[in-house]
Specification:
The chain is α+β, with helices and mostly antiparallel strands. The protein contains ten helices and seven strands. Helix 3 packs across helix 5 and helix 4 runs antiparallel to helix 5.
Length: 265
Amino acid sequence: MARSTSTSGSSAASPGTGGRRRFGRRRPKDPNKPGRFAQMKSVYTMTRKQDPASVWWMALAFFGVLLLALVIGIWLDQVIYVLIIGLPLAFLAATVVLSRRAENAAFAQIEGQPGATAAVLGSLRRGWFFDQEPVAAEMGGKARGMRDLHNAAMVFRAVGRPGVVLINEGPKGPAQRLSESEKRRTLRATGEAVPVHVMRVGKGEGEVPLQQLTRRMKKLDKKISKDEAIAVQRRLKAIGNTKPPMPAGVDPRKARVDRRAMRGR
């Protein structure tokens, strides 16, 4: 009995045992999964660099909510109690402002880059189907002996309850020609019963700003059901065996919107 007691005591005290590993040591943090505070700090740093005015808007939201809480507290003769409630609400208001400004800053970082449309389509929620690669593309001109990637015309496709949405970017003339050609090809595959919408990303007349693209798509009238949208996507995938001529060096899959920044996380 004495021997068994001493053995168990030594095993509990010796380092490297199961109990010591379970309760005596902390698990190392995964560098690829930063904590919430670290995420907020990185979002704030990125947003402040891209949009310095965001700091003042956050401060205005924070102190505005606190001032409102103070006024309500004086009116109810419960200043301390209302301020205790108003403090987390003030932080929440500042976080909401940071989220909005961070979203705009994230779009500003990728705006004008080849394949930016694919990055924005990645923020679409359930009910939409899209391709990360363009369904049609045309190389740009040459600049200093190399292909000018910023002059590449591309057409991206998304399928949802409003039907098929074709979004083009790049030089206006080639992009419109590609869109019209892809629209005719889509109508031959889906028929006239499925609407085909064409949008152009940009800041000119009749164009959709990059940060408003998904909102504009969601506002389209819903003409088909979810099952029909799935069937249309499968049909378009089935006929899309030919790969478009991609400009050398362009990989739209590498362009990504910081979704944590868009959510304020």
